[in-house]
């Protein structure tokens, strides 16, 4: 099984965490962000993650991938149907997280000058200049902290709305993980410990592909 992904991408992180939790091995292939030909060749569109199962089946969409490989319902998919508000929460989180992290993601080892320029040009069309995102960081931080304090931390039993680890934790942790790159933000001890527990369960190492 081959996983084509970006290191920073929350949807790609979902799949990495899910495969780790399910103890499924795979070949990790990090694509340059300006590589359009590879995803177009595999699926006809520039969208990652992509999994090539090696049997002629190629799939994208993070949740579809994880459903396909979780044949024993280890991740408790029924909870996703019972907690449809998780998608709304993730949408609300994505705005401050992406606004805060994008200007920093482009300086990680994942990017070279060409892919950095491609990424920045594309993302600034939607969010405005990275310079202004940093200038307005206090607004984005306030929005993020409000969501964490009101919509996340009160629902951490042992895991998110559950005494056991589920697909909801993968979805939430993958969205929040990017904030570790932002130098002026710290999670509360409760949320940080929650994320670190997810890291252990999913055998997740954000940086592993940087040093290969």
Shape: globular
Uncertain ranges? none
CATH class category name of the largest domain: Mainly Alpha
Order of strands in the sheet with most strands: 2-1-3-4
CATH architecture of the largest domain: Up-down Bundle
Counting H and I runs of at least 4 residues, what is the number of helices?
10
| Arithmetic mean of pLDDT | 95
- Strand pairing plus helix content: what structural class? alpha+beta
What is the CATH topology classification name of the largest domain? Glutathione S-transferase Yfyf (Class Pi), Chain A, domain 2
How many beta-strand runs? 4
**Global Rg:** 17 Å
Biggest sheet record = 4 strands, mixed
What fraction of residues sit in β-strands?
5-15%
Helicity, as a percent range: 40-55%
- Order of helices and strands, N to C? EHEHEEHHHHHHHH
- In total, the number of domains comes to 2
Measured distance between first and last alpha carbons: 18 Å
Overview of this structure, please?
This protein has helices at residues 10-21, 37-43, 62-69, 78-82, 85-105, 113-127, 130-135, 137-152, 167-176, 189-202, and strands at 2-5, 27-30, 50-52, 58-60. The protein has 212 residues and is α+β, with helices and mostly antiparallel strands. The protein has two domains: 2-72, 3-Layer(aba) Sandwich (Glutaredoxin), CATH 3.40.30; 78-208, Glutathione S-transferase Yfyf (Class Pi), Chain A, domain 2 (Up-down Bundle), CATH 1.20.1050. It has a four-stranded mixed beta sheet with strand order 2-1-3-4, with helices on both faces. Helix 1 links the parallel strand 1 (2-5) and strand 2. It is globular. The model has no long low-confidence stretch (mean pLDDT 95).
